[in-house]
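Filed under: proteins

Residues; backbone shape codes:
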Amino acid sequence: MTQDFIYEKGVVKSIHDSVVIVERTNIGSCKSCSIGSFCAMKDKSEISVESTDEFSIGDVVDLMINPAVRVWSALLIFILPVLFLVFIYPLSFYIFGFTEGWSILISLICSSLSLLIVKFINNNYGKKFYIRIQRGIL
């Protein structure tokens, strides 16, 4: 089973050890993505990618992005806060015996705190998402 990668063109701007900084040249492709308006990548013109291949500044490259990265990102950003909201309310209301108002407030706070979990996951595992770089053709 093969995976169809999402390809983006870019130009190598700088190289630091094994990290290649690439300026994305076709950011307009983000408009076709269903989460394009929420994605943190949308407004970034540069992306850093780890690579052991040899590149020179000014090289045209292809960024190959695994579609699973976008799916998991969407699930974390949109589903996790809703799950917290839905499961914390009955837990605080029926199990811990809080009033309805307090249960709503607690579930809203926990839903907001789930964004800290998303930030933690991004900080610790975001660099491990599968983005490859290869020489491109103009």
Summary: The chain has one domain: 6-135. The CA atoms of residues 28 and 39 lie 13 Å apart. Residues 6-135 form one domain.
